[in-house]
Amino acid sequence: MNNNHSFDETSKDKQLETFRSYEKGKKLTTNQGLKVAEDEHSLKAGLRGPTLMEDFHFREKITHFDHERIPERVVHARGYAAHGEFELYKSMKDYTKAAFLQEPGSKVPVFTRFSTVAGSRGSAETVRDVRGFAVKFYTEEGNFDLVGNNIPIFFIQDAIKFPDLIHAVKPEPHNEMPQAASAHDTFWDFVANNQETAHMIMWHMSDRTIPRSFRMMEGFGVHTFRFVNAEGKAHFVKFHWKPKLGVHSLVWDEAQKISGKDPDFHRRDLWESIERGQFPEFELGVQIIEEKDEFMFDFDILDATKIWPEEVVPVQLIGKMTLNRNVDNVFAETEQVAFHPGHVVPGIDFSNDPLLQGRLFSYTDTQLIRLGGPNFHELPINRPVCPFHNNQRDGYGRQTINVGQVSYHKNSLADNSPSTSTEKEGGYVHYEEKVDGRKIQARSDSFKDHFSQARLFYNSMTLAEKKHIVDAFSFEVGKVKDKNVRQQVVDMFVNVDKGLATAVAQAIGVDHPDGEESAVAETSPALSQETTAKLPDTRKVAVLLGEQFDGNELESIVTACLDAGMVVDIVSDKFGIIHAENGLAIEVDETFLTVHSVLYDAVLVVGGEVDNPTKFKKDIINFVNEAFQHYKPIGVASTGVSFFDASDAEVGSGIVMADESNNFNNDFIAAVAAHRHWDRNIYG
User: Fold this and answer.
1) Which residues form the Catalase core domain (predicted)?
2) Domains, the chain, ordered by start
């Protein structure tokens, strides 16, 4: 087909502009372009008579409405997305001939969709779940989709088990409960009877599955792919996305409360950060293994339930993705975008990972039903920025008007066009891997170790992270009604850590497990979130304020917070303007009715005077108590001491008192940057 869009870093945005519709100031028309004179009343036979069939405008309008919905994704239904660009740091030409990975400083447009796996499209966003992290690169050689998750491994090793996994984790079919949750019988029955899940379950029970925001979680390609360079030499590769803001999470009680206070918490966070100009940034890293080293490790590099430990195979950072524009229309872009791990470009190829091989079949298949046929590539969000020409024709939703009589290959009537390309001309040539073996339905013995890396993960956690994992198991398995399934889970995870299994057994009321404590104590510091970047940037602070506050003190701390890149909300008993004792006027952003402590990263207690001081004090105390229980930083201005003293919070880790700090502003910002203060004694 013809495509007149030249390729540069803004080419996708230019292409999308041709499809945008701006209605402001326009006259209402039908879909056929006919101007409409009446849009409030259908055509009737008399004022109180029946509606007439000839009212074509009514029929078009109601019919379109009746057909507005398309099937939601079977998995990853709840998602949100943004546009951006990818900039290359260093050339990868020694490893791959992919054009977008050749020239340092070069840029390509991207579209990134984050999601939850298990919940429906209308479910809450802060549930305990794996998060999808899918990136579409619009390159000059075609679209490359890196379709991954925020966890580097998966539950199963072979794609034939995927329907079983999803059937188990989805709401149980007899009562359609629970929504967007793995804390139920069928999921844990699946886990206990499919022990290849062990490693993934350790990640699933960790803080990784309740991220603070999409902007603060890692992304992984999960599978082993291949880089192939211009000389035909291949290397195995895994892809990583590293957030510049570090990897941070919610605590479970906080996550549950946010689901009720703001079920759109994650998408709102992404939208607002981009609207503020605080663009999320992720660095792309690669782990590379030479083909000759394929079998030198104590794990199979093709096993999707295994990581390549970063201390063994270092991650090279090769570029940066910046998400800098929100979508114009969630349905047209976020909902209709079609990702596929088989969308690759020359220089990127596949491995024999059996889970990846199954995904290569499944993704096209699901788009056919979701998007109404084989022409989903012509939807604006899915169109490549480079020209595309082939002999595919017709079908639902076809937009291209193909000119000419020829629609087959080979031909002489059109000089054999469109013609194939040689490898030197950019034609995709599959890597010539030697394959030799008998047809067999089995799994390699190298895939049979299900517990060593699960143990590595648990050993790498801090004491606080281990406690969260124990609590997560206790909650999730505690929701299982069948006691036999509970016991099976405990007996399974004694293979990871006996202390973990024993603590869970005690919490959920089953027999303590048999088995010996593992003597294996290897760790991988990269697996712990405590080793991540800790910055104040984009952290959200609630300033609790009333009339006659200390204007000089507040102005100083708010200015310091804003200079540090933080977001500040003034929270009071009602909307309007509040005045300081020095005459400073400040506008209220939120009230105690419209927001809650769990929606903020930190609290600054200032206090002041209001019409109902008793309720005001109670509201502040509730804010402080919640923040303290969730290990968040709390700053207390000189006028806020009496409010803090009336709360259950205690002076200690992460508590910054203006009357005790020599440098209150810097100390508070440092406390916010630390994110959580796990050494706080919240249980007495």
Assistant:
1) 29-417
2) 79-378 (2.40.180.10), 451-529 (1.20.1370.20), 536-673 (3.40.50.880)
